[in-house]
Structure formats: structure tokens, C-alpha cells
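Record pair follows.
FIRST:
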Amino acid sequence: MLLKVGELAKRSGLTVRTLHHYDAIGLLTPSARADNGYRLYNRDDIARLHQIQALRGFGLTLADIGAYLAQPDRPLADLIAQQIAMLDEQIDKAARLRARLQELHVMLLHGKEPELADWLNTLELMTMFDRYFSKEELDRLPMYRQTQTQSAKWTELVAQVRALMDAGVPPADERPRELADRWMTLLARDTNNDPRMLAKLNQMHDNEPSMQASIGISPALRDYVIRASGESKLAIYERYLSPEEFRFVRDNYGERAMEWPQLMADARDAIDEGATPDSPQGRALAQRWMELFRSYAGDDPATHAKIRHALQNEPELMKGSWADETLLGFMREAVRGLAA
């Protein structure tokens, strides 16, 4: 079957001018011509046009497309598979956008007029999440799929914490400690209790001032919550340590708290990759783990033993830590191997 240039333009959605340009630059030269000089495109020409349009969809220039097509052994099946994957990603993003817009639509139907900021924040936050998380990660991130009701819980909690911080209530007070406990519980739930999700969320928060503004969580507010959460744990450690030991722990506890999520994320990745505690990867993780542990526990093995005893006997100390028994078991073995 042979198609004239006008027929091919109509059926492909391109213009005759575009097809003439492709011919002029040698990108798509028709295989035949009629007696009257009309360009005639056969099956192979149309397959090549499909490749050209697919590569344009990937953002390649015409010059780059020409160079790619000039390569030998370029399987068309692989190119179509790439195009399918790209379309799947676009469909997924469109579906997520539809879900967000549906929430705003429900607000309108119930007589709640969304502010312009609601619309902009929805779109802006979606774009930010897409930059930091893969599609597979977003599928495992409840925070990304949360409903308007779940978002409202965060909005209320953030406002309550900010009110205490602005009023000068110290983190050791019972009120911010209770709110910090709720905060960590919600955060663990909304990150699927996965330290890798938490580490990426922290990275996004640190790098995106507009995110901090849109969700109302400034670095100072986050630090206030971390210190309040730490105060609850310090109250437990105090029962296990001497006054001198406790003074050192209090002075240093939380100073490097933001480094723990990434370390646990790396440990979780190592476990999933099949690394063993005695592998070079396991030993490197154990060294980082002990460095952070000593930063607040000091160098005395007796103090270390007391803190470990507290961790074994007090479940509250592990609450909101993003460390499950699999991860802790791996690190215990890695640390023991390092000491040996």
C-alpha cells in the first residue's frame, strides 16, 4: 500500500509542509514517486515516521533523531516499549492530578469555595513530589494520596504546634511533647513507616522553601517538634543513667537527629539488595551508626550498655523511629561484627 503525501499527512496528523521538510533534510524520504512526480510512502516509510514522532516525543531534536536512526540494529520494538512507558507515566500523572482536582471539586459541591492558594498549592506540591520521588515510591507514599480530611488533620496539628512555639512554650513542656507524639505517629503512617520515604521528604523540605511556606512547616517549627519528641525520650533515659551520664546525653541528644533517617534509609536499601551484616557495605553502615550513637552517648561502653538496656525495655523509645526489627537486627549484627 502506497500513500501520497497528502494522504499520509491527513492520517498521521502532520502537515504536508512538515513531511516535505523531513524529505528535504533527508529524515524521511519517500521510497517511491508516481509518474506525475507525487511522493509515495510505503510501509517502511510509515514505520520510520512512527519512530521519528516517538523520538520527538522524547524531546530529541531533528538532528539527533537523524543520527539515532542512522545507527544499525535499532529494534523498533524497544522504541515502542519506551514510548509505552512514557505514556504510562503521563497517564499516571494525569490520574493523580485528577484525584487532586476531584477533591477541590467536592469542596465546591459542598459550598466550600477553595482559595486560589488551594489550587496553586495542589499543582505545585504535585510537581515537587514528582521531582523527588519515583512513580513506584509515590505509590508507596500515603502522604501523597491523602484525602482532604487527612490533610486537615495535619493543618490543625501544625497550627497547634506553631501556637505553642510562638508563645514561647519550651519543648520540655507536656503540651508540645504530646503534640510531637501525634506528629511522629502521623508522619510514620504517612511515610508508610519507611525511612527512605522520610529521608526524601526531609530532602524535599530542605530544598524547597515554597513547600515550607505552603504547608506551614518552617525549619524552626520542625526543629521544635524534634526537640519536643526528644524530651519525651530523655525523660526515659534519665531513669537509666547517672546524673553525669545524663547531662552529656541531654547536651548532645538531637544534635544530629536529622542524619538518622538517611542512615536508616541506606540500611534498608542494603537489606533489600541482599547485603549481609558482615559485608563491606554492612561494616560501613555500622561505622556510621556507631558514630551517630557516640555523638550523644559518649565513648564509655558502660553508658552504651545502659542505653541499650533502656532501648530493649522501653518501647516508647523506638516509637516514631522508622526502625523495624529487621533493620535493627541487621544493624546489631553489623555493629557486633565491627567490634569483633
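SECOND:
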Amino acid sequence: MNEVFGIPIQAFMGQLMLGLVNGSFYAMLSLGLAVIFGMLNIINFAHGALYMMGAMLAWMGLNYLGLDYWWALLLSPLAVGVLGILIERTMLQWLYQLDHLYGLLLTFGLALVIEGLFLNAYGVSGQPYAIPEVFSGAYNLGFMFLPKYRAWIIVASLTLCFATWFVIERTRRGAYLRAATENPKLTQAFGINVPLMVMLTYGFGVGLAAFAGVLAAPAVQVGPLMGSNLIIVVFAVVVIGGMGSILGSIVTGLGLGLIEGLTKVFYPEASATVVFIIMALVLLVRPAGLFGKER
């Protein structure tokens, strides 16, 4: 069988795999947004800029310091996470009791500042980042060739996503964190350092974005605008899955990536809008999102 619905199986599976790769990025980025919103009640519009920063730091580390991919995968998320902690301590902590709009406006302004700094330094053109030698080549699956680096993206992102879900939903530390978001005063009365947990949560959330940026660096052109081109779709994914839903972000990100890939096969003209069409339909039927809780 060489065709699927009249389409060559190589083309069909290739687009399906590309959709799964895109879905892996959607899942990781929307997971970070969901963690930050669910735990801090902040709509983090700077997420795309911090994703871009992770990729740019990897590129800068390779070209200026000679740091290879594996060091970038470790150090870039740590650096962006530390920056996130500074942002939370100096700016965001004053907004937790205010309307969501204030946090959105502040993080939107931060995104513009971060993008503007990198645009001023490097311009709008993208920079190449070489695929690590260990991931050069492709696997022969019989019906298609799967690039090794795309396979690594899927495995690494899914492992990190489900590990994060497990820690938050199935461990004692995660239970403390969820309790701190529901009733911080009562949780603090039991001797738990709530401000420290909140600070580390924001740092971890933006660190996830930077990790996704480093993963994306060898697969796309690294540039100051790479985050702004992606963040609107990721916000749509979060809305569809349910604001603050950890599992919803992971499942919805992967599912929408696959749907987007299939749309490119059957009706390419709609591939750029299919996610937003699904968002509109979901909100009409279930305003809280597929996995969100009605309030």
C-alpha cells in the first residue's frame, strides 16, 4: 500500500511526523504557560521572547564561547530561569492580587524589550545552528526516513512534559505547590515557604521555554522573531486545553500539532488557521477549555 487517501504514504507520514514535532514544541511551551498561570495566576506574554532567548543563548554560546549543544541544553534554561526569578522578585510579585490584565501588560512589555535588544544586536535575519553530530542522518522506517534529530525532539519534549506533570500531580512537593496556589496563607501557616515556591515555579516555567528554544535551534533558523511567530499559536493551545491545566496543555499541544500536519496534507490553505478555528469551536461549546475547570 503506497498511498493513504490518494496521497503517497511518504508525503503523508512526513507531514504527520512534522506535525508531531511541532506538537512537541506546542506541548512544551503551553506547559510552561499553564504552570505559570495555574500556580501564579499570571498570563505570561513574555514566554515567546524567553523561548527565543534560550535559542539565541545557545547560538551565542557556540559562536562566542565554543559551548556545544549539550552544554547549551543545560546552561541556557538555567540562565533564562535565573532571569525569570529576577523578573518574578522585582516585578511580578506585586501583581498577584490584581487583575490578569496587569500581568499580561507587564509581560507583553518585557517581551518587546527582550526582542528589541536582540533585534538591535543581531537584526531580523535568522542564524543557522548545526545539528549535533550524534543526530546526523535518519532512521529508515521502511515507509519513510525519519531524521534522527526530529526523533530526539519528540522523545526529549515528551519525557520532560510528562515528568513535569508527574511531579506536580503525583508527588508531595507538587501537592504543596497546588495547595499554595489555592490558599497561600493557610499553606504558609504550616511552615511552607510559599514565596520561595512561587519564585522557583516561575523560574522553572520560563526555563521550560528556554529548553524548547535550544531544542528548536538546530531545526529552525535562530533569530529574534522566532518567539513572536509561535506564541500566538501556543496561547490558542493553552485556551483550548484549559487555562492552568497541565495535562490539557500536553495532550492538546500534541493533538493540535498532528491536526495541523494533517491539514497541510489535505487542505494546505487552512493549515495556518485550523488551530484558531478549533479554538473558536471549543470556546463555543466549553468556555473553560477541554480540560479546564468551570468556575
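COMMENT: The mean pLDDT is 88.
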